[in-house]
Design a protein that fits this description.
With 73 residues, the protein is mainly α. It is 67% helix and 0% strand. The protein is built from four helices and no strands. It is elongated and about 60 Å long.
């Protein structure tokens, strides 16, 4: 039995009063497809960070307090 066939079999066993939960969950899975893939802006930021690490440039922080203080300035 394939995983799809197993899922369908399980779906057929879901009580009617719980089917709306299953539908909402499945819609969330479908809507989230690809959501974890970085967009072009994120990829560019990763590349910039990699370059900074390779060159030893950029500001380094040892605490989030210092980081946020600089961000607020």
């Amino acid at each position: 039995m394939s995983e799809r066939e197993q899922a369908i079999q399980l779906l057929n066993d879901v009580p009617e009063f719980k089917i709306d939960c299953v539908i909402a969950y499945m819609q969330g899975i479908i809507a989230g497809a690809g959501a974890n893939e970085p967009n072009a802006e994120t990829i560019a930021a990763f590349a910039e960070g990699d370059k900074m690490l390779a060159e030893g440039s950029g500001q380094r922080y040892t605490s989030t307090k210092d980081l946020f203080a600089d961000l607020e300035a």
